[in-house]
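User: Quick sanity check before I run a bigger batch. Here is a single chain. Can you write out its predicted 3D structure?
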Amino acid sequence: MVRVTPEEYERIDLRAHSLLADVPLHDVWLVELPGGGPGRTIGDLRALLSVEAVTAARGVVRFLFALRGGLGRLFGWDREPAHASRESVLPRLSAAERECSLRAPGTPEGPFRVLFVSPREAISEIQNPTVHAFSVFALVERSSGYLLYWGIYVRPVGRITSWYMRLIDPFRRVIIYPAVLRHIRAAWARRVGEAAA
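Assistant: Done. Predicted structure follows.
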């Protein structure tokens, strides 16, 4: 589980690169998923990428999510702004993309909304008073298994965004994302092992 350069991530052919071209890429993470056989898709990872799976990753991660949830309720950080639909990038999707997305664009998933899901890519959006952010999972097949990239894009919503990101980045980068990716890798390994058995 490592952070990778934007250049490595941007070499992957993804819809996110053009869809989010005007949104700053905050960071990108990578986890290797060994085995699995040919033809695996984001659909095979959906359960592992769910909000419930992510928050169950580790005790300290659950605590940090609970703390953030409590602060969100206290300060009103989790309500979706009234102008959310105007600011969403959802209208940038073509009718064909909306039709072929494996999950209906605009579908709520925890605090996120699905934007686009293809066999290799899942793009979600979150809007609240602290950030307008995007999560992109990209699955790349290789001979020994798969690489799962996780790109985080952050569009500022005001002065609070830079303060908020400076506050949470150490927790995200040192504790949360490594724990979540370890959890995904372990769950993948279990699933691959069960399939082989």
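The first helix runs from residue 6 to 10.

User: Great, the batch can go ahead then.
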